[in-house]
Model the fold of this input.
Amino acid sequence: MKSKKNYCPKILSLLFIYIPIIIIGQNSDKNTITFKSPSKNFKDITIQSHKGLPRLGDLYFHRGVTPPVNPNAYKMLIEMKYLTAIYADMDKNKITKTGNDNDLKVNNSIASQQHLLQLVTKLGTESFLKKYFCDTSNTTLPCTFTDANGIRKNIGRWGDSRNEFQQMRSYKAVVKNHLNELQNWSRTFFKDDQEIAYFVTQSMVVGKYDFKQKGYWLTGMGSGRFLIQKSQFSAYTDNEKKLKNQKMFFSIPPSKAKELNLQNRTPVFLVFKIKVIPKVSIPTLYFDYSFELDHKIIEIYKDIALTNEIGEINIDNAIFKY
Done:
């Protein structure tokens, strides 16, 4: 069990990492899912999807091609649902400034206030930010929240101001007017404390085409990035355990192999249907995930956009080697 001394760094490091829910924008052509905001004060949340389910792990971004998404807001709203203890210790009357390794309640208050600040600045609409995050003491610069490329700027202070009185007004007003509606929205995610999703990871061709066995050797499950990673995989069967660290054989006929022309170290992309389960460690309250396979078939694609499926592997019948 971790000591209280290590608690605050764990929580604060969490804060800075780059359903029933109403789906209003699911579009198989755009490969996105949109979760409708319950309030005019906050933007809808859009994330990438695959076959109608959330896409986790390796995402795909191509400026001007892939539609805008805000996955970090999705991630942080789920965190809000499960970091209930730090929010229970939040001082709602003033900003907590100084932490103490021996005072868990103070550290919880700091962590929850920072988490809330980042969440509202990611989710807030333009009118919301103008109401709570315009520095009225600065009359020389316009109040803007996006950079020249239209990307939302990071806001590091309540009220976006160095003035402590303005910071306090901003913080207390947001807590009073909007904390409950955000917490209520967060509870609609991960219904039954789990989520079915797809985990996308990069693999790689190892060596040349094997004419004897008719196929390629591929590296196993890749690390992943968004929300979950390979280290969080709960492997139960022998083959699932091998999937973590061993090469696996991808059977494909010579005619198809000639068409694909895969070379040594050519990247390919593995897609796993999974069940994601949130984990909260008490008393440290460090938030994490674990996941397990929800389907035996591994889909294999030539491209990270997942438009060119080249085959599949059944995990039960898979062949592995070091």
Summary: The beta strands are 32-35, 45-50, 53-57, 195-210, 215-218, 247-251, 267-281, 286-301, 309-314, 320-321.
